């Protein structure tokens, strides 16, 4: 078991032990506290729903906090520090495996692919996955979803990530792009906007998308505790209806319009860069166009986790995914 997973499960065990069942939100409250795992252009439809006033139309005020990490995000949810979490679906499986009495349930999808890209230090006239064999590959942190997806894609192309290349995965998430820029690795797996920034600056060149290669997965979505879903379904339906409006709006609008709409969430990022990243994610179908998580995406998630040796136990789709809310909103 990886250090990442041990720490995550230990923290969850403590929170589950001390937390009590039930929702922290009062029936007469219209403010929803949302804990997001990170701040990312990857989440554009959610920010667009906020900026376009769709939540206000549904009588909801969003109190948004960035918790910077899956463990911290789930801790906020399970300890009633947040009503809703925006986080990867794999975390709900880890919680469930700890025999949580009030498990985290995904009720709305936000992203439906991995969000990382393969960046080459050298500009290649053509790229084949075979080019990775014998190379120094700077991957993501072991035990995290990006690394699991990365290994899944390499294996799909007949590459053993632990034998066919020199895999570096002991660098903290926030320092991976810095390490590559400093000369470590011939290839690197990067999130946006670093991948596009490196391409613009000539530091590296995007040669493949892990999102395209790994297929549809419930990569990031909105979760609530089971008790809240049972007690506050009408409120969560209004939340999801606003999100759905944002998803449809992003689907219909050009990248430059979306970038302007969400720019306040990325004050230090040039609008031109935000536009490029939005366009890249839109073009490969990373943004979910509806809040419904599909069974095949859930199965693919567990396959990826299992191949990486990080699936604590298989969990049925119906156990940790609520489709009623999304289906009601989409009628």
List keywords for this structure.
D-Maltodextrin-Binding Protein, domain 2, 5-stranded mixed β-sheet, single chain, 331 residues, 16 helices, 2 domains
Structural features, described:
- The protein is of the alpha/beta class and 331 residues long.
- The protein has two domains: 3-15 and 30-113 and 217-330, Periplasmic binding protein-like II (D-Maltodextrin-Binding Protein, domain 2); 116-214, Periplasmic binding protein-like II (D-Maltodextrin-Binding Protein, domain 2).
- 44% of the residues lie in helices and 15% in strands.
- It has 16 helices and ten strands.
- It has helices spanning 3-18, 44-51, 54-57, 70-78, 90-97, 145-156, 176-181, 194-201, 210-214, 226-231, 233-252, 255-262, 271-283, 295-307, 317-320, 324-330, and strands spanning 31-36, 61-66, 84-87, 104-111, 116-120, 136-138, 166-168, 187-191, 205-209, 220-225.
- The chain has a five-stranded mixed sheet, with helices on both faces.
- Strand 6 (136-138), helix 6 and strand 7 form a beta-alpha-beta unit.
- The model is unreliable at 18-29 (pLDDT under 50).
Furnish the topology, listing elements before pairings:
Layout: H1 3-18, E1 31-36, H2 44-51, H3 54-57, E2 61-66, H4 70-78, E3 84-87, H5 90-97, E4 104-111, E5 116-120, E6 136-138, H6 145-156, E7 166-168, H7 176-181, E8 187-191, H8 194-201, E9 205-209, H9 210-214, E10 220-225, H10 226-231, H11 233-252, H12 255-262, H13 271-283, H14 295-307, H15 317-320, H16 324-330
Parallel strand pairs: 1-2, 1-3, 6-7, 6-8
Antiparallel strand pairs: 3-10, 4-10, 5-8, 5-9
């Amino acid at each position: 078991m990886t250090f990442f997973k041990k720490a995550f499960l230990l923290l969850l065990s403590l929170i589950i032990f001390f937390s009590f069942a039930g929702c922290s939100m009062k029936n007469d409250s219209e403010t929803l506290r949302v804990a997001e795992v990170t701040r990312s252009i990857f989440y554009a439809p959610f920010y667009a729903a906020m900026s376009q006033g769709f939540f206000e139309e549904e009588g909801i005020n969003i109190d948004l906090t960035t918790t910077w990490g899956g463990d911290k995000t789930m801790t906020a949810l399970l300890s009633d520090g947040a009503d809703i979490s925006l986080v990867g679906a794999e975390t709900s499986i880890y919680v469930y495996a700890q025999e949580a009495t009030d498990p985290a349930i995904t009720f709305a999808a936000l992203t439906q692919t991995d969000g990382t890209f393969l960046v080459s230090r050298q500009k290649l006239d053509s790229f084949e996955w075979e080019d990775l064999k014998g190379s120094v590959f700077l991957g993501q942190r072991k035990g995290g979803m990006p690394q699991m997806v990365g290994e899944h894609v390499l294996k799909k192309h007949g590459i053993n990530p632990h034998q066919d290349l020199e895999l570096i995965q002991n660098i903290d998430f926030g320092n991976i792009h810095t390490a590559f820029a400093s000369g470590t690795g011939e290839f690197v797996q990067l999130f946006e906007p670093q991948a596009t920034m490196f391409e613009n600056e000539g530091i590296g060149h995007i040669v493949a998308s892990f999102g395209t290669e790994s297929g549809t997965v419930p990569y990031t979505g909105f979760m609530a505790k089971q008790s809240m879903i049972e007690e506050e379904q009408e409120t969560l339906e209004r939340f999801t209806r606003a999100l759905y409006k944002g998803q449809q709006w992003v689907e219909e609008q050009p990248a430059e319009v979306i970038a302007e709409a969400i720019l306040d969430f990325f004050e230090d990022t040039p609008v031109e860069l935000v536009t490029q990243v939005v366009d890249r994610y839109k073009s490969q179908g990373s943004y979910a166009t509806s809040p419904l998580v599909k069974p095949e995406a859930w199965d693919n998630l567990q396959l990826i986790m299992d191949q990486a040796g990080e699936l604590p136990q298989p969990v049925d789709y119906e156990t940790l995914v609520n489709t009623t809310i999304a289906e009601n909103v989409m009628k």
